[in-house]
Design a protein that fits this description.
By secondary structure, the chain is an alpha+beta fold. Helix 3 packs across helix 4, helix 4 crosses helix 5 and helix 8 packs parallel to helix 10. The chain has helices spanning 47-54, 76-80, 99-109, 114-127, 143-155, 173-188, 200-206, 224-231, 304-310, 324-334; strands spanning 9-18, 21-31, 36-40, 62-67, 70-71, 83-87, 161-165, 192-196, 209-214, 217-222, 235-241, 262-264, 267-273, 280-288, 291-298, 316-320.
């Protein structure tokens, strides 16, 4: 066992407070080499504090943090040398010099040997698809291009740990797809990756493990099925019906209408219900081209009588396992 390489990241019982607010509360998590861990949580859950501590930008009040076996609290500079960090929304570049000149500067600051800098920078720009814009001033870059340049900067030190805080922010569909391919490629080369995102599809596609934090504490760690289990969602039934409202007969006895229908801001046609009704953990109702789509998320075996009442002649019915997004919405809805 002693001959095994250390994990890319190990955080044990880490706590961090800001005044009287506890941002991280006795948090423990790890990232193995070659593993992608997606860290989820609503705004204020502690994701940014976690990645900043992992990236040695913040010091914990207590607990242990190790990057590639190096004590990141006692030796932050050594830990930082093997860490690539991409923070969403952070500018961090000189606007007049070129992309190539910026990365050469950061290669110098990052301790890349002088004889390797030009090659490392050239390779990093090529990896993120900016080799044809290497000589352009960074001030002319779009937000998506800047995000790719941040990733290139993180790669020039050949890190053992890559920390990506919402890396697909500002990227179009094609660029986001390329980013996912790049992240997976790096993991396949043995790089440990800690990634935060609000894009559930991205987390589901990339995550070897999903960690959900709430109020600075880890509440779920595992696969998509583990998140579903924690949320109490077993199956999802989607009904594409011709009806315009959920029939009264589909409701529990004595309940004559879908509980707490509420318009979602920006989506006036979307109706959501959050109360549990006879084994249903959540109901979404959405008009579509003159028909109605019902999404029933079950906390037990799907009830055929409810499905039958919701559907009808000519309805399309699909029952499947829940997606990460569906499970996460129920899980976080239960916590509020």
């Amino acid at each position: 066992m002693s001959g095994l390489p250390p994990p890319a990241l190990r955080m044990d019982h880490v706590t961090r407070t800001f005044g009287d607010r506890c941002a991280i509360d006795d948090l423990s998590l790890g990232v193995d080499r070659g593993q992608i861990v997606c860290l989820l949580g609503h705004n204020g859950a502690g994701k940014t504090t976690t990645v900043r501590i992992a990236g040695t930008l913040l010091t914990p009040d207590s607990g242990r943090v190790a990057v590639d076996g190096v004590d990141a609290v006692a030796s932050p500079r050594s830990a930082r040398a093997t860490t690539g960090l991409v923070l969403g929304g952070d500018s961090g570049f000189y606007t007049r010099p070129s992309a190539f000149a910026n990365l050469m500067f950061y290669a110098d600051v990052g301790g890349v040997p002088s004889r390797q800098r030009r090659q490392r920078v050239t390779e990093a720009l090529g990896t993120v698809g900016l080799d044809d814009r290497a000589g352009d001033p960074v001030g002319e870059f779009s937000r998506g291009m800047l995000q790719r340049l941040h990733l290139a900067r993180a790669l020039i030190t050949d890190p053992r740990l890559l920390i990506l805080d919402e890396p697909s922010t500002g990227l179009d569909v094609h660029a986001a797809r390329d980013l996912r391919a790049l992240v997976r490629s790096r993991a396949n080369q043995g790089v440990g990756i800690l990634l935060t995102t609000h894009a559930m599809g991205e987390a589901e596609a990339l995550g070897d493990r999903i960690d959900v934090i709430r109020r600075g504490r880890l509440v779920v760690s595992g696969g998509v099925s583990d998140v579903a289990r924690a949320a109490g969602v077993t199956y999802v039934t989607t009904v594409l019906s011709g009806g315009s409202a959920l029939p009264e007969a589909a409701m529990p006895s004595g309940q004559a209408a879908l509980p707490r229908r509420a318009e979602v801001p920006g989506h006036p046609d979307l109706l959501s219900a959050y109360e549990r009704i006879d084994g249903v953990a959540r109901v979404d109702v959405m008009p579509m081209h003159g028909r109605t789509v019902y999404t029933l998320m079950w906390d037990s075996i799907p009830r055929l009588d409810v499905v039958a009442e919701v559907s009808g002649a000519g309805s399309d019915i699909i029952t499947r396992e829940p997606t990460l997004e569906e499970s996460y919405l129920v899980l976080e809805g239960e916590s509020r």
